[in-house]
Amino acid sequence: MTGVNRVSGANGGNNQPLTTTKLTIKKNQGITQALFDLVTKMKAEGKAEISDGKITAKEWYQTINKIVELQQKRTENGGQKIYSGGSNPKDYRGSFIVQPNQEIEFSAEEMNALYEAMGVTIKSNAPAEPKAPAAPKAPAAPETPKTPAAPATPKAPEAPKAPAKPPVSSDNIPAKDANPPVDANFVDPSNNPLKKSSLTTIEQNMDIFNRGKSDVKDLASGNSYDYDKNGYVTKTYDKNGNRTRKIIRNADGTVYAYYDIEYNKDGKETRKIYRRGDGTVSGYVDNEYDKDGKWTRTIMRNADGTVDFYYDNEYDKDGKWTRTIMRNADGTVDFYDVKEGGNWVEYNPDGTKKG
What we know:
- The structure is a single chain.
- This protein is α+β, with helices and mostly antiparallel strands.
- Among the domains are: 20-122, no CATH class; 197-279, no CATH class.
- The protein contains four helices and 16 strands.
- It has helices spanning 31-44, 57-76, 108-118, 201-204; strands spanning 20-24, 48-50, 103-107, 120-122, 216-217, 224-227, 233-237, 243-249, 255-263, 269-276, 281-289, 295-302, 307-315, 321-328, 333-340, 343-347.
- It has a twelve-stranded antiparallel sheet with strand order 5-6-7-8-9-10-11-12-13-14-15-16. It has a two-stranded antiparallel ribbon with strand order 1-3. Strands 2-4 form a two-stranded antiparallel ribbon.
- Strand 15 (333-340) and strand 16 form a beta hairpin.
- The longest helix is centred in the N-terminal third of the chain and has 20 residues, at 57-76.
- It is globular and about 80 Å long.
- The chain starts with 19 loop residues before the first strand and ends in an 8-residue tail after the last strand.
- Residues 1-17, 126-132 and 163-169 have low confidence and may be disordered.
């Protein structure tokens, strides 16, 4: 996504400079979902632009990494934490924990960084007020020339240091994956996730009797629904309690976008399909698992089924998650994360620590 515009401070798209932006976490919502809702509202109000109409999976990954970076800076400076729990971008159950109705304040600098990570352009309709010209300063008195200092005695050159050894070896990471995922080619049209979808009657219509309610059961289908304060469905769950659909709405209740989630027989998420408001696909994500049920690969795909990027998860002999390798579509390494002392540390392909 291109066309990023940094702003001096915005609160829900307000054109007046502000020092903070307050983000309120709703029920069943995480930080990134709250940011998405904020940007969606700003776009609907004409106060923000998303250049290609969506925030890509890669940009969301960048946003999560930026949130981790902001959390670390706050911790170092003794500031208020953004979230509790861990900071593992791939373990949402034990990481990035926030509570319903929690209010998180971001500084203008922090919001600039988050908007940039998301690839969002903030519009500013109000021209900046011209500043009054500064009063001319009186000319400074000429300084008395100083006696030149004696030249410093040259130091003996230091012995060259041995190159630092990367803290984590990258020798066993192939520079290019021998078996990268292939672009999707769906022979069976009935199994093609790229086909256009539509909302059900319940998901389309307003229900004033269920305003603000959660886990409302529909006896006919066995599904359950969460409703917003206006009576529109925001989330759909199947009879097993798995969330199968999340609906993002504009301020007037119309659908801006939604995504569908599919599961395997063990209840593990296998596919998430991102859709525009009209039901057409904007991109989707495939998850793969080994025979023991461990999550081994995630593939980010474009709307046409081509691979955008992917990552592989690795485990030790005890089944503990130890490393994630992020790869480009052609299988080359972009970067990798290693579990060190309970935290995930990011490294460049050559084994040096990132940034």
